[in-house]
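Q: What does the assembly look like in three dimensions?
Context provided by user:
Components: two
Sequences:
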Amino acid sequence: MDDTVGDLDAAAAVPVLDVRDLVKDYPGQRALDGAAFEVRQGEIHGLLGENGAGKSTLIKCVGGVVRPTSGEIRVVGQEVTLRSAKDAHALGISIIHQQSNLVGSLSIADNLAVGDSSSLLVHPRAERRRVREMLDEVGLDLDPRVLVASLRPHESAMVAVAKALHSHAKLVILDEPTTALSAEETDILFGQIRSLASRGTAFVYVSHRLGEVFRLVDRVTVLRSGRRIGTWDAPAENQPAILDAIVGDKVPQRAEQSNGPDRGRPLIEVRNLAVEPCADVAFVAHEREVVGLAGLTGSGAEEVASVLSGAVRPASGAVLVRGEEVRLGLPRRAIRAGIATIPKDRHREALLPGFSIRENISLASSGRFLTDPVSRTVRPDRERRAVTEAMQSLRVKATGPQQSVSTLSGGNQQKVVIARWLLEDFAGYVFIDPCAGVDIGAKAEIYNIIRARARAGAAVVFTSSEPEEYQRVCDRVLVFHQGRMVAELVGPEIEENAIVRSSLEPPAQHTLNQKEAVS
Amino acid sequence: MSASVAAAAPKSRLDVVGLLSRWGTIASLVLLVVFFSLKEDDAFANSRNFINILNQVSILAILAAGLTVCLTMGLFDLSIGSIATLGGYLALRWGAEDKFGLGPYGVLLIVLLAAVVIGVANGVIVSYLGVSAFIATLATASILDGIALGYSDTATVQVGIPFQILDLGQAKFGPIPSPVVIMAVVMLVLWFFLERTQMGRHMYAIGGNPTAARLAGVRIKYYAILALSISAVCAVLGGTVADAIIGAGRPYGVGSVYLLDAFAAAFIGAATLRPGRFHILGTLVGVLLLGVINNGLSIMGAETFWQYIVKGAILIVAVFLSGTVSLRRQGV
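A: Here is the predicted structure of the complete assembly.
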């Protein structure tokens, strides 16, 4: 703010951030492949792309969290090497994440003072005055003594911005800041961001909510496969071109022809389900059918799948298996009703680390090998035989059932997790992103396992973080957008393009209805 | 490809740390026995002294076996010492008074039922009130200590204890004292329970990954109650045997002696054969290791403080070895 007008003009010519030819290799995967990105002073710049396009890797590189493999990053014309988040911070780059970097159990004042080592001793009154000034700067009228945990999401986002500005941030990167915001709160946040940008701070805005992005930003850059596809001024006018750039032109590929018309009787029925962010979801999955629930993170697709698994208790609604209502929110009840779930995060939710493959596979079905129902003694010979069979039929690469599951590759671990539910036949299977972190070969095998389950008569519910997977396994896809089912794609209609388009920008008057839909 | 390479790698070279972590505790047990046998051959290495060692460790073994069941699930039961004290006192006092008119065996049954009640209370506090087992059992330990002191008026029961109860500590089956028999039965039953039954499998699964176990349909709360009840029953059994050996029902200071040793034995056990896992056989090795150290050192005439120092050092080494290996196996 102290800069003279002349300095400002001179500086405006040079981009605040200029990223060129950035490459980042992870083992077995190139996350950034010569990405370029440029942010001018005082602009609000939208960074868009599908999951896995390289957005978060780019941000991490700029934020000093990740070291790029090659390429250059210039901050106000100076080439820099960022070794840590602290380096980036010192250069005026500040990243604000979804769950902001604030400590919920501390007051606003304490949060804003954290990391400010100008004096060892705290003078409460002087400090409170200083904090008030910081809050005024971002247009927040809040008591500094209030705990951050009690703030509304847009308020804590702005407190994080205030903190960033206080440390003389030239560039503030907002990573999905509005996922938890209502429409009005988003408006307030946007107003504050615009007013700060007009005073010279540059913002990078990362979001999946395209409608919002187009309302807020001055320019848009689209990444795909780790490369910049393009940068657009006046994004609102170039909306179709930008959407095309995000999706790209993809050749649909189908691993196996679906058996849609062949489906049997209704097996899993979901009625009036309300689970954040969904208010009223209903659908049916039939015998011999794979139903995909598609949508971006937070759209409701995964949340509905988690209700089916029993992991999440919904606010209201019912799930019926073969006409019988299931008590919700208890995995054990879901299992007993006949629904087996392959959860999203195999390390956190499925694997027993350091345990043998045998123990991991037989966990859910050890009841099958008991000698009698009283002592509940497990018959090791029968258990071993069943486990070995399951390992062979899923082609788990291991020395034998006694090998520790922690020594297996990701794909083989995932097969073990799936095998856990194949010792018995379940009526329904819920696969929540089963191919995440799995190599390509194992992916194809997992698709086949899923199809085989449906062929054997089960109803399968499938979600994925990669839209292209739906066309490979699903007979029918329900697309979710901000808690609503906005599209149903059947058979040949299931293509990545269609899924991505309706999950980003659903058909019909969505943008008009956005306010009502959210509130 | 990568998986089979990773799996083969530890086997292809001599894995010293891995071997040590599996066999280290058993090797030290053997070495200690050899060492004391050479040094004090007359006093140490004879069957009478070996039975004596078993007798000395029996109470510890009974408590440690129950504790092992809790530890497989990741529950720290700090109340076993206090439960042992109260249980032993009640058994001897009610036995002496023939409180319920059911005779000594009736009293034993009722005391064991009381143990189940205490264990269920522990389990409910942990499962349904969400208090960590560490704190919950610390608290119930204090309450039980208080109950024992208040109910007894700090007086020891010495008169009129029926022989059936005293026999728990003093009878002999041939050359084998009854505490050793009770220890063997408890260990055998709990070994079978943990290794061979579905309930044992489920408990290990909960200890390995509670979230995964819950999502696989395992009733975590139920098993917490079951595990804490088993350790409470073992504690009462151990406390009763301890009081029966001396022939006195003491309202304080009985179980606390065994609390830390029981943890030490179980953790030494988790460094035996199956690094990073608590199991009955391992706990038995831990118990024997502690017993041999105590017995051997006292026969050698070493002062008592050495027992504590050696025990502590062995515990650190054992936990270190089991920890490094189990962490490495998980790829941390």
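Follow-up: The CA atoms of residues 96 and 174 of chain A lie 5 Å apart.
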